[in-house]
Amino acid sequence: MLNVIAQNELVADAGEQGLWLAEGDDPYFLIRFSPLRERYVVIKLASRSGEIQPKLYVNRGQGFREEEALTAGSGRNFLIVADVGSFGTICTLRLDPASEPCQLTLEVRAIRSAIALQHFISDQQRQNSELVVARFSRLPRFWKKLPTIRLGKRNTVAARYVEQARILADKLLPGQLGCTDPWLSIVVPVYNAPVRYLNELVSSFEKQNIEGVELVLSDDGSDSSDTLGWFTSQPAKPNIVVVANPINKGIALATNSGIDAARGEWVALLDHDDVIAPNGLTVIQTAIATHPDAEFFYTDELVVNDALEPIGLMLKPAYDPVLLTGVNYINHFSVYRRQRLNEIGKLRSGFEGSQDYDLLLRYLEGLDDAMIIHVPYPAYWWRQTGTTYSSKFIDRATDNARAALKDKFARAGKATEVTEALTTTLHRIRFGTSATNRPKISIIIPNKDSYALMATLLKGIYEQTAYDNHEVIVIDNGSTEPATLALYNEYGQRFPSFSCHIKQATFNFSRAINEGMERASGEHFLLLNNDVEIIDGGWLDELVDCLSYDQVGIVGAKLLYPDRRLQHAGVITGFGGLAGHWYLNKPEDFGGPMNRLHVRNSMTCVTGAVMLISGECARQIGQWDEENFAVAYNDVDYCLRAHKAGFRIVWTPFAYLIHHESVSRGSDRGGENSKRFEREQENLKRLHLTHTFDDPASNPGYSTDRSDPKITPFSSLPVPRRWFT
């Protein structure tokens, strides 16, 4: 029996069986089989994104070593045959399909005999004349010695990133805190932990080379002789405290016992199977010293396997309470003020698997965003083994997370329903405000001629959209097409809420929006491009629902190209020195880092093609800039003005539409349009310094040179970040 496990940013495409998306630069498959097995492992691999150069690895006892890679050649279609023998103690192969992001298909089968193998190869070659057949005969079958792990030897992106971060942090000097000693207590609940995990945790703590910290190990009534033996064998140390709870009461109460024993002004919570990254505590201390009024800090994290080898990175945005209601992206390394922890009652029982999520939601409640600091350093190494409570009992952990979210909004006086997001274990908050008290929405559509587009859009608004408390205002800059004029007349007669205002003028998107808003009578304003196609009736309900989050002034939607690839999942300020869409052309169900494209996010910008603006935001920010941004970047300018004024901008994947981008207006790349486009680019840099902008929705570890940002080691340690500065 064969078992295939995808690792390191390999994502199955839900739209097609057997299709994989390799999103990182070091994706691989582990192919596992039993000691008694069929003789041949046959791998059928095909690329849909150009030529690839797959490699096969066999662990001979020292891990998967780069120098022992077996190369299958170059091409698009491969049949890789591995002769693993009918018996052996080596039971795993590693297949690296490509070193660049790509789409690929994979089939793996076992074949018993050489004759059956030859028949299969011949049949495949008849079907595909370009098939590359790579045969690896008599691979090693037995360990020469017990396997050992060579820590971080593979030159992966994650390994390079954390090593560069460590080197830069080596130069930091500890900050001056002016608080009691110890300044930090690291509390770790322990239950029947393997001795190796405890040794690695303590070693990572002792190697921090920093004073004023203590490690509090709170044992939750362990009955493992190995764990108990480890505790009794440890010499007494002044900075390591052991709390022996006589009976098992669960992780929440064990953690509370550790917090009760802690002496530090600050408390960090770790799991017993994870470790602290080199220089992690120095970076945290420096952040605390430079932000003395802050109440909470959190860091990025490195995902490692059981042997502490890097397999991924979690590079996080600045504090985003909207994203946090969809996924607990914060978690590790979290640093709390001990006094506030005690004031809120520490952890609560009854939220098993999501007790840390419940704690976060309660602790952050009522804090100003400026008091919550993101430290963009991978200070935590999270061992991903699949043996944690939340992974083994995922359904219960998910239910408890949703109970914690429901509690959070109930405390704020908001009745909510919490349902699944596009990833079933993540969350969607339904406030229900649009169903019970639907504010009037003024829909503003700039247009000229474009009968087919307008007919599709208006039909979608009036016949497909569930939300019905709206008016439609078309600002037309000179239509002469009879079919378009007749369409206006038809809708004007059928719907009193429809109006059209035609005036011959040069196209100026900002001017059209300003005129539409002046004519509007609604409570909020919705901008729609004429080349948008409505495909789901609940889209406007969802946009309005997002206004129920605190401080939200603008809401944007998920837009798809006609072939259902991503066109808009938010705009990142600073991309290309200006601003740009991220993850363009990804599949419709692409999740992105931490699956954050499957839940609501805060952004600094969303596109004006579908943009809901609250009345309060519109009144405070004022008119769109007709002079500096007649056509391009006017939505970026408006969003950045709103962001700087303290309004939150939300993007949601639950409102999704088709966008036939710029079909009616054409390109900005030629003649006078090109000169105007270049002027507006320079205006954006001049007014908003986009060439140096650190977008809080992204992370300093991501490149800004492409829509699909890559992890790039930074040249200097980035400063701690807030959402609003």
Automatic annotation (TrEMBL):
- The region called Disordered is annotated at 688-713
> What InterPro entries does its record include?
Glyco_trans_2-like, Nucleotide-diphossugar_trans
| Protein name listed in UniProt | Glycosyltransferase
Query: Which segments constitute the Glycosyltransferase 2-like domain?
Result: 185-293, 442-559
